[in-house]
C-alpha cells in the first residue's frame, strides 16, 4: 500500500472544559469514570466543549462472500450471508432493531457477494463476486483489493458529505472470522491457536477445520509480511478491504467511528497503517468472543466500552454502545 495522508488528531478543547466545570462547582473529575473519558473524546472529535449529542448517526455494514466458508468453518451455511443482507435491507433483521434503538440510519453495501441482493442500486460496489479460498489461493486480485479499498473510502465520503457526525461500522459475512484470524495472526506474530475462536458457536470438530485453514492461510501470507494491501489480497476479502478503506477515510474526514467486533478491529489495525493516527478517531463498542479482537484492540490501545461477549456481529455490538455515548454526553455536559 503506497504511503497515504495521515489522519489529523482530534482537537483538545475537552480537557480544558472539564477543568472549567470543576472550578465552577460541578462534580469533581472522575465522578462518572469512563463516561467522562467518552464525553471528552467526542468533544475532542467535534472540536468543541462541551460535546453535543450526535445529530446524525449512521451504521454502515459491508457485505461479501468468503470462499473459505465452503470448507464449513462456520455454524452457518454460506448462503446465509445473502439472507442477512436481504433482511437488513427489508427491515426484518435484528440489526434493524439495534439501529432503531440507537437512533441510527442503516446502510448495507455489497462489495463482494456472489450475486446481487435486491436493494439500493448505489450500494452494489462489488469489484469481485465472492473470494478465493484463503488456504489454497489468493482471495482477491490486486485490482479487486484496490476496488474494495476505494469503495470503502467512497462510502465514508458519502456519509460524511451527507452530514453523518458519528459512524458505526460492521460486516455481515458468514465465515469472516476465519480471514480475520489469519490477518490478526499475521499482524501480531501469533500462532493460529491463539487467534482462532468459536466464531458463530462452532464445535470442536469445526474448530479444528477452521484452525487448519487459518494455519494454511497464515503460511501463505509470509510472502507479503505485514503489508496491508498484500494481506487483504492474499487472505482478507472484499468486506475487510472495504472496512479498512472506510475507517481510514472517516479518520481523514475527522469523523468519529464506533467499531464493532473482531473484523472491524483487525481492519482498524490495517487502516491505522494506511492513515497513521486514525486510531484516535475510534472507540470500540463491545467485547466480542473472538481472541482476534482482543489482540487487535490491545495494539490499538482501545478498551471496549461494554463487555457483552456478543458474537452476532453485523454492527450490533457497536450499535448497543451508541446509547452509552449519548448518555455520556448528556450526563457529563
Continuous helix count: 13
- The CATH architecture is 3-Layer(aba) Sandwich
- Which word captures the global form? globular
Which whole number gives the mean pLDDT? 91
What is the string of helix and strand elements? HHEHHEHEHHHHHEHEEHEH
What would you call the structural class?
Answer: alpha/beta
DSSP E strands, number? 7
- Amount of helix: 40-55%
Describe the structure.
A five-stranded parallel beta sheet has the order 2-1-3-4-5, sandwiched between helices. The protein has a two-stranded parallel ribbon with strand order 6-7. α11 links the parallel β4 (257-259) and β5. The protein has 333 residues and is of the alpha/beta class. It has 13 helices and seven strands. The protein has one domain (57-322): Rossmann fold, CATH 3.40.50.10210. The protein is globular, with a radius of gyration of 19 Å. The model has no long low-confidence stretch (mean pLDDT 91).
Task: Please name the defining characteristics of this protein.
single chain, 333 residues, alpha/beta, Rossmann fold, five-stranded parallel sheet, two-stranded parallel sheet, 13 helices, 49% helix
